[in-house]
């Protein structure tokens, strides 16, 4: 009897272990067998839940497990602090996006993104509060030719202008450097709305940000309750208030990276969201895809949409073509409904 009791006790963790393993295996199967042979630069904004973790083999993953650490602070943080001061609204808000060479190419995503502010519903003024983070020198040059607030996010030893394996350590370091900048922004006392560059803006998305929540995050798929963590988070659109709590959350998030290598920030967030709730009492609001729309759960009611994200589409060209289509639909809607 005694031994079978203790067996039962051992079976419970074993059960979770088995379930966990099956889940991980399922994620791997889904992610590894999705199309993944594109150039890494095209993949920078493949930002749905699965897409961020795909494109590598288990063997590659294991190699990456060995050496992942939180990158050290950089010497050019002062430049970023200066940009924050210049770009912030008087209530200390900034909008941040990031681009690499491919997304910043002429007549590509960055241009379409910037145009969306001019085609939108009185949102052109947000460009005065937008900081564009360039991942490489070419993207930085392009940014400087079209926008006043550009930041070159140089990581020592990382060269993203060359072709890189999507899940290479350099690549992942770069993705995580985004969260480091988020933390830095909060530490400087600014709230930020981070937007992927493949998000088209139609209306002021701040109208859907809750004062109540510490963070407001987009959803790949929204299940109806904005406080429910089971909504699939999408960190392509994230707002955070500059609170001590949020700074601790960013630190915790970045440190959690070591527990879930080699995952991107969005997948790690999805893994630790309940820890964040229990440890920090983190309050998150997820925004309905009716308002912060996307191709994962497309509901194109232009009366409601603030933004539209090329999420759940793979490849820069596909994203660009589809976003162009949505932009045209928006213009048609606007010409019929806003005769001013
Ligand atoms: C891991 O990092 C340590 C110290 O940074 C280094 O000495 C070691 O060679 C690295 N290992 C691999 C497999 O890259
Ligand atoms: C990055 O890699 C590209 C292609 O391999 C090379 O031409 C370029 O000089 C490299 N840049 C740096 C800063 O090392
Ligand atoms: C779009 O949203 C508006 C405002 O809520 C609503 O009145 C309208 O019926 C919706 N249109 C469609 C096609 O669902």
UniProtKB/TrEMBL annotation:
Transmembrane regions listed in the UniProt entry: 12-35
Keyword Transmembrane among record annotations: yes
Keyword Transmembrane: yes
Coiled coil start-end: none
Domain Nucleotide-diphospho-sugar transferase: 126-321
InterPro entries on file: At1g28695/At4g15970-like, Nucl-diP-sugar_transferase
Keywords: Membrane, Transmembrane, Transmembrane helix
Source species, domain of life: Eukaryota
Name under which the protein is recorded: Nucleotide-diphospho-sugar transferase domain-containing protein
